[in-house]
Design a protein that fits this description.
The structure is a single chain. By secondary structure, the chain is α+β, with helices and mostly antiparallel strands. The protein is built from 18 helices and 29 strands. The strands form 8 sheets. It has an 8-stranded antiparallel sheet with strand order 7-8-9-10-17-14-13-12, covered by helices on one side. The chain has a 5-stranded antiparallel sheet with strand order 3-6-11-16-15, with no helix packed on it. A 4-stranded antiparallel sheet has the order 1-2-4-5. α4 packs parallel to α7 and α10 packs antiparallel against α11. InterPro entries: 6-hairpin_glycosidase_sf (IPR008928), 6hp_glycosidase-like_sf (IPR012341), GDE_N_bis (IPR032856), MGH1-like_GH (IPR054491). This is Glycogen debranching N-terminal domain-containing protein.
Length: about 675
């Protein structure tokens, strides 16, 4: 589904995707409608006046949670000085509320029949994504005097949409209507409430229903203003930087999701429309990107992931003791175990990354209490790395799904079916071990050694972890290095054969620190070389590889989040110019997306397309793409916590101008950072 002809508003797990008129006419395969808790609560929401559909003059995305549509009767081709105008104002927050205003510009009274067709297919988001709407329960509509109740029941699983209006309406099973007479220059208004209810076992309502009223909308506005006020301020001579930063902050606010067990605390949901829920990997990486700016997200994320850590062996959910979840879902297919996401544990990177985030969070915030609180969960995660993850017995993290029906084949971040291949394009057998996950394991052990020594009172465990990390680094650099090409293999197969393609994953190895110093320059040059670097960013798979496709999901597209960690890795090894090159390309690309970087975009060479080519089904906004500009700011300014203070070592791209980041929070209180880019001498006037 293209994004240019749809309007999206969201508040955490609840979102609305509609046409530019405000209408919703969903098909089984399109993510249009009102969604909450992975269920579509409205699939039809169509306004007519005197039987006519309406034409959009304009629409405004006022905030992430509200929009306004300006409409006239009839289609655009028939427009001649309309005598009526219609305004639809909409806000979402748990459920949604729409205010309808109709104005008569005629010199005569006018009689109007105003109708809203309303329906719900109660589709599970997985059913929409898979284009299979196979409902096994009963859909019903109950007409009451003052409301319309749409519902779905399947055993104990119930979902309901309850529609009511501030003005008297006539309800029927397919919607509601008003008969209105408007005098000259008169206007008519009504507020329409749409409440969603998710009924669980025992009749418990999992969703408290509508929380958008006039004062609640103001509360959301105040919350957004406070969110922005609490974050550091970014000023820049180059307007794209500060504008992109502000867009990212607002999108992060929109993506904040409060799981049912958290009582209001929030963590970042992964992305709209398909991933508006908790993801271990995505939430952790987003928190790592945003730590200098919104550290509160990290604390919540660590706590909720720790509370849901694996405790048993469950083949259906790919669960092991100590394993950090991959994904949690609340819809029908999860409730009836048609999908394993309650939660599902099929990722191999979330577990070491959990330990990485805990250490990084403490380094920034000084929150030793949380490190002590999560000691047991951290030790369990480290235990998983060394035991249950080593399926081959050679000291690496491997994956092979045990749920062969609905589990993920590839359990690394490149989780599409064909993302891991040999250089001839063939796919390796399972189990598989991807390179970046070994880097994460190395980093987790190094960081956990610090935590054990400084906070857990266990210097012997710290020494053991450091020995294991050193052995892993030596072994990895022997087994994964493709000597004749000067880079690390994407993966190993169970026989130890290298998947010897050139991929963006090698940048994550720099970030983790597992790369031998003498090899780092070769890796860095590959990352900014013409096969991987398009001019906008680093491709997931290098041009010239058998499976390379500039619009292949993980086989040639550019992922902004991927590039942000690559830039961080380049800075870690001292390649500041190369990191600045990537940051510059990403920030340039962001201007073509109005400051909102999508999940992925095409890997075409910059000189060929002149602008970044959209990937057709990319999520937007998406959490780790939203976090990308924030991590790039960190890498450009060289912000690193060091011995209880904030170290600043800026290296901006040529021509960037001055950047200020003010009130950076941390264990040091709040401090400012300043940097100025070098002049672009080639473009200076004589």
């Amino acid at each position: 589904m293209g994004q240019s002809n749809t309007v999206r508003i969201l508040d955490g797990n609840t979102f609305v995707v509609c046409e530019d008129t405000g209408d919703i006419e969903a098909t089984p395969s399109e993510p249009t409608g009102l969604f909450s808790l992975d269920t579509r609560f409205l699939s039809t929401w169509v306004l007519t006046v005197n039987g006519e559909r309406l034409n959009s003059l304009s629409f405004d995305d006022l905030q992430y949670f509200e929009s306004r549509f300006f409409l006239v009767p009839g289609m655009a081709t028939h427009y001649v000085d309309a005598k009526l105008s219609i305004i639809r104002e909409r806000a979402v927050g748990g459920s949604f509320r729409e205010q309808l205003t109709i104005l008569n510009h005629d010199e005569k009274p006018v009689d109007l029949e105003i109708r809203m067709d309303a329906a719900s297919d109660f589709a599970d988001l997985f059913q929409v994504k898979d284009e299979i709407l196979n409902k096994k329960g009963e859909i019903y509509a109950e007409v009451e005097a003052d409301r319309l109740r749409l519902g779905y029941r399947r055993g104990n699983f119930r979902r309901e949409t309850i529609i009511s209006s501030s003005m008297t309406a006539r309800y029927d099973s397919k919607g509601f209507a008003y008969t209105v007479r408007l005098e000259p220059n008169e206007q008519w208004k009504t507020a329409i409430d749409v409440k969603t209810h998710a009924i669980g076992p025992g009749g418990r309502d999992l969703r408290m229903g509508l929380r958008i009223h006039g004062n609640e909308r103001l509360a959301l506005q105040h919350d957004l203003e406070q969110w922005i006020a609490d974050a550091p301020k970014v000023n820049s001579e180059h307007g794209r930087v500060s504008a992109t930063y502000r867009r990212s902050l607002i999108d992060l606010a929109a993506l904040r999701f409060s799981p049912l067990s958290l009582g209001g605390a929030t963590l970042p949901a992964a992305g709209l429309p398909w991933f508006m829920t908790m993801f271990g990997r995505d939430s952790i990486l987003t928190c790592l990107q945003t730590l200098p700016f919104t550290p509160q997200l990290s604390k919540t994320t660590l706590r909720i992931l720790a509370s849901l850590q694996g405790t048993r062996f469950d083949d259906f959910r790919d669960e092991d003791p100590g394993r950090i979840l991959h994904e949690m879902r609340y819809g029908e297919t999860a409730a009836f175990e048609e999908q394993p996401h309650t939660p599902y544990y099929g990722s191999v990177d979330a577990t070491p990354l959990f330990v990485v985030l805990l250490d990084e969070y403490e380094r920034w915030t000084g929150d030793a209490d949380l490190v002590r609180e999560l000691e047991r969960e951290s030790r369990a995660a480290l235990g998983w790395i060394d035991s249950y993850a080593d399926l081959v017995g050679n000291g690496y993290i491997w994956y092979e799904r045990r749920n062969t029906e609905t589990g993920l084949e590839n359990q690394c971040w490149k989780d599409s079916w064909d993302s891991i291949s040999y250089s001839d394009g063939t796919l390796p057998p399972f189990p598989r071990a991807t390179c970046e996950v070994q880097g994460y394991a190395y980093d987790a052990k190094i960081r956990a050694a610090r935590l054990a020594r400084e906070f857990w009172g266990d210097p012997e465990f710290a020494d053991q972890l450091e020995r294991e990390a050193a052995e892993l680094k030596e072994r990895f650099n022997r087994d994964w290095w493709v000597a004749d090409r000067g880079y690390y293999a994407l993966a190993l197969d169970p026989e130890g054969r290298q998947c010897d393609v050139l991929s963006s994953n090698i940048g994550h190895l720099l970030w983790s620190g597992i790369v031998e110093r003498e090899r780092a320059e070769q890796v860095a040059q590959h990352l900014v070389g013409p096969r991987l670097f398009s001019g906008w960013g680093v491709r997931t798979l290098a041009e010239g590889e058998a499976r390379y496709n500039p619009i292949g999901y993980h086989n040639g597209t550019i992922w902004p989040f991927d590039n942000s960690f690559i830039a961080w890795g380049l800075r870690r090894y001292g390649f500041a110019e190369e990191a600045a090159t990537i940051a510059n390309g990403m920030l340039d690309a962001a201007t073509y997306f109005d400051g909102r970087l999508p999940e992925a975009f095409g890997g075409y060479p910059r000189e060929l397309t002149k602008f970044p080519v959209e990937y057709p089904t990319a999520c937007s906004p998406q959490a780790w793409s939203t976090g990308t500009p924030l991590l790039l700011l960190r890498t450009m300014l060289g912000l690193e916590p060091h011995e209880g203070h904030l170290a600043v070592e800026p290296r901006l791209p040529v021509g960037m101008g001055r950047i200020e980041v003010l009130d950076i929070p941390g264990r040091w209180g709040r401090v400012d950072a300043f940097a100025r880019g070098r002049l672009d001498l080639d473009n200076l006037a004589d």
